[in-house]
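Weekly modeling sync, notes
Attendees: S.R. (lead), two postdocs, one rotation student

Agenda item 3: backlog of single-chain predictions. S.R. asked that every request posted to the team notebook include the full sequence so nobody has to chase files. The rotation student volunteered to paste the first one in as an example of the format we agreed on. Action items at the bottom.

Example entry:
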Amino acid sequence: MAEEKALYAQFTARPGHEDEVKRLVAGLAEKVRREPGNVTFAAHRLVDDPAAFFVYEEYVDADTFSAHVSAQHGIAFNAALAEHIVEEGSRLTWLDRV
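Predicted structure, as returned to the notebook:
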């Protein structure tokens, strides 16, 4: 049986870039949710810190996650996001279901 892939990504908008990051994430969410094998793509902002973004993602297996990572819309998103966040990229945390 294929093992699902689950993770969360975190990143912080630069001061004054919060709305642009929100726009970018919302646009990506629409595309990722249509990808074959995507189970969940839930994007959030922290209530106490609207510059902090949290995205929870699930894919049916490693192959569908690999397709997600190589999708052109994801590549374009990461390139655009880079100039608007504090970190050098999203901080990814991998999860195992219990």
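Discussion: group reviewed the output briefly. The first helix runs from residue 18 to 32.
Action items: rotation student to repeat for the remaining queue; S.R. to check formatting next week.
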